[in-house]
Task: inverse folding
């Protein structure tokens, strides 16, 4: 089970810490958990709940109304929002939930659906990169298990490799050739894999 500070929750949900404290006092939105030294913290269940709440608020729902809803009703409203073709926040929040649970099946369904609806470039630019930015901050400050970040990064890496493998090999005699490589000691290749995909879709040849 993950443990998150109020600062972590603020970064992930984009709800200010001051606002979270007000919600806690005024609406009793969640049960406060505290360490032995009386420091407030949140667990995975709190995170999933607050992600859903913040999403509803972003799309016009009032906190007073949301606070009166059951968690099940909130989830149903979020699913209704998720059916909209132009919604990105739903996918990002769902990825965060999949990460905390190490849920590969949920990731697979979500990303495969996004790839069909939006295509590879839009999915990466508007969903996967913002997601990675969020978890990257938490990974750096040690608020999430590095295994969770590595788990999701590897699944994204696999998707990019499969997408690139499905492209035809360009004619080397006609088009440009690009050499792609990571600096020595650098192991994070998602950005380079995406660049490789983009270059190949433009009809150019790559040496990866």
Result:
């Amino acid at each position: 089970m993950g443990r998150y500070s109020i600062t972590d929750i603020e970064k992930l949900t984009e709800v200010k810490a001051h606002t979270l404290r007000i919600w806690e006092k005024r609406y009793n939105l969640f049960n406060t958990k505290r360490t032995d030294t009386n420091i407030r913290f949140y667990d995975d269940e709190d995170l999933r709940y607050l992600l859903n709440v913040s999403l509803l608020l972003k799309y016009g729902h009032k906190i007073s109304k949301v606070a009166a809803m059951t968690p099940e009703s909130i989830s149903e409203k979020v699913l209704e929002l998720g059916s909209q073709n132009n919604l990105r926040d739903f996918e990002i929040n769902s990825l965060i939930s999949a990460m905390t649970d190490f849920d590969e099946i949920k990731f697979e369904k979500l990303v495969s659906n996004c790839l069909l609806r939006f295509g590879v470039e839009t999915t990466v630019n508007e969903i996967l990169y913002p997601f990675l930015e969020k978890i990257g901050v938490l990974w750096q400050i040690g608020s999430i298990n590095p295994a969770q970040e590595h788990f999701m990064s590897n699944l994204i890496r696999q998707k990019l490799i499969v997408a690139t493998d499905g492209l035809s090999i360009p004619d080397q005699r006609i088009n440009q050739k690009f050499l792609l490589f990571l600096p020595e000691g650098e192991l994070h290749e998602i950005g380079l894999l995406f660049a490789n995909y983009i270059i190949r879709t433009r009809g150019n040849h790559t040496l990866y």
